Amino acid sequence: MKMNSLKKAGSVIILLILGLILIAGCGNSQSTPDEEEELTVINVERTGGFLTGFGKVKVFIDGEEVMKVKNDEINSVELSLIPGEHTIQTKGQGDKSSVVKFEVVAGEVNEFTYHTEISNIYGVSLDRIE
Fold first, then answer.
1. What keywords are annotated for this sequence in UniProt (predicted)?
2. Which CATH superfamily is domain 38-129 in?
């Protein structure tokens, strides 16, 4: 008899815990719409001297590689990004550029153009072209 009572009590406790979890989950959901991703175009122009022009520079958006650019070339990539702040960085021949921030704005044209260069002295540079 005691065993059945313990099983029933255990079942009731489990159901109560599950109910509380469901209620807590419903309380946290707000009726805010998901952010729409915006078409974003990233253009990267690369230049460099004769000795630093070999190989490709990798371009990273938010830490993820999205394209490679050869010397004296301009490459573009179209991405779907949520509005807000994002980062771009280039890496080549073992060096990295500084991380540059850019802002994607909902409902606007989001096209960004950058210049990157590998230098024997200064490593990899990355600058936004206005």
1. Cell projection, Cilium, Flagellum
2. Domain of unknown function DUF5300 (2.60.40.2890)
| pLDDT tens for each residue of 69-80 | 999 999 999 999
**CB neighbour burial string for 57-80, b if at least 16 within 10 angstroms, e if fewer:** bbbbbeeeebbbbebeeebeeebe
pTM, rounded to two decimals: 0.70
- Where residue 19 falls (left for φ over 0; alpha for ψ -120 to 50; beta otherwise) is alpha
**Distances from the Cα of 109 to the Cαs of 33, 41, 89, 123, in angstroms?**
22, 9, 21, 32
| Alpha carbon distances (Å) from 50 to 72, 121, 126 | 11, 14, 19
